[in-house]
Amino acid sequence: MKKIAVLTSGGDAPGMNAAIRAVVRTALDKNFNILGIERGYRGLMNGEVVPMERESVADIIQRGGTILKTARSEEFKTDKGKKIAVGILEKFQVDGLIVIGGDGSFKGAQELSKLGIATIGIPGTIDNDLAYTDFTIGFDTATNTVLDAINKLRDTSTAHQRVSIVEVMGRNCGDIALYAGLAGGAENIIIPEKGYEEEELCKNVLEAKLNGKVHNLIVLAEGIGGGEALAKKIQYVTGIEARATKLGHIQRGGSPTCRDRILASRFGYRAVELLEEGKTSRVIGIKEEKIIDLNIDEALNTPRKFDEKLYEIAEALA
Ligand code: ATP
């Protein structure tokens, strides 16, 4: 292993920069050449390759986004696209590629490994929707961003004695809603894994009001419906004023938390070690605080286990 390359792909997540920094500095520490590929697989096909030095990653550990930029590319999925990508990697004499992204990006890495490129994946996505790992880079920061919003909305909804719905990211995975909802003391957490009954929810809101609750915070994962429509329904059924706030892309930005920076540093370091050991088609994760790695297919086929206990706790404490 002499020369490795790193790219970020799919949705950006806070902590991706810390992971790039870890990959670059570990590689240099081990006397490898290290290249950065800009704009994910799209940039790879275009030959957007830049040399990376220690200074290239100076002053980025605290920054959200990704200095390598990110993109999605349908063309890369085609045989022609993958062939072009392999051609570029061969031209630059890249021995190993580290891909920071979500499940789609990992599928891309798996395809490249089938074409002879050694690949390692680092999970970077705010949704925490990769079942094989307990946490992904960016999830902790996004959850803290949501928590901050919940705290602020609680102030104003208490002042007006309103119902406040916070709509957060999470199409198939309700982890952001569950963690931020529990930490923020939300009265109701609505996530795709559990579903909900509108009538039952309205009944709960009304009962809570009658029992003296001065506010009612509902955290809603986007995958299960829109906040605006739910607010209208609650207001119509209960007669209590209800407002929805959609946090949107705010959840993707911001300075990564200490936890995300450390996770990114550990993942980045391990990714280079795996290439050094001659491994390929592996993804890195964390299980019970230990860094793990497994085959990409195995990782992507791991069935998701929902944290029932955490949900039970959130319900009991609401
Ligand atoms: P996020 O979870 O944040 O959305 P992601 O990595 O899952 O991140 P995707 O848009 O699904 O994001 O994938 C990123 C890119 O990976 C795609 O634009 C495409 O270029 C590549 N990719 C996805 N699926 C495949 C596949 N089956 N084969 C080859 N490449 C793929």
TrEMBL record:
GO molecular function: 6-phosphofructokinase activity; AMP binding; ATP binding; fructose-6-phosphate binding; identical protein binding; metal ion binding; monosaccharide binding
GO CC, any one term: 6-phosphofructokinase complex
InterPro entries: ATP_PFK (IPR022953), ATP_PFK_prok-type (IPR012003), PFKA_ATP_prok (IPR012828), Phosphofructokinase_CS (IPR015912), Phosphofructokinase_dom (IPR000023), PKF_sf (IPR035966)
DNA-binding recorded as keyword: no
Superkingdom to which the source organism belongs: Bacteria
Binding site residues for Mg(2+): 103
Any one GO biological process: canonical glycolysis
Stretches assigned to coiled coil: none
Primary site of residence: cytoplasm
Keyword check for DNA-binding: no
Residues reported to bind substrate: 125-127, 162, 169-171, 222, 243, 249-252
Positions bound to ATP: 11, 72-73, 102-105
The entry's keywords: Allosteric enzyme, ATP-binding, Cytoplasm, Glycolysis, Kinase, Magnesium, Metal-binding, Nucleotide-binding, Transferase
Binding site residues for ADP: 21-25, 154, 185-187, 213-215
Reactions mediated catalytically: beta-D-fructose 6-phosphate + ATP = beta-D-fructose 1,6-bisphosphate + ADP + H(+)
PROSITE patterns found in the cross-reference section: PHOSPHOFRUCTOKINASE
Enzyme superclass (EC): transferase
Record field: transmembrane: none
Cofactor: Mg(2+)
Family: Belongs to the phosphofructokinase type A (PFKA) family. ATP-dependent PFK group I subfamily. Prokaryotic clade 'B1' sub-subfamily.
HAMAP family: Phosphofructokinase_I_B1 (MF_00339)
Subunit note: Homotetramer.
Role: Catalyzes the phosphorylation of D-fructose 6-phosphate to fructose 1,6-bisphosphate by ATP, the first committing step of glycolysis.
PANTHER family for this protein: ATP-DEPENDENT 6-PHOSPHOFRUCTOKINASE (PTHR13697:SF4), PHOSPHOFRUCTOKINASE (PTHR13697)
Name of the protein in question: ATP-dependent 6-phosphofructokinase
The species this protein was found in: Clostridium kluyveri (strain ATCC 8527 / DSM 555 / NBRC 12016 / NCIMB 10680 / K1)
Gene name of the record: pfk1
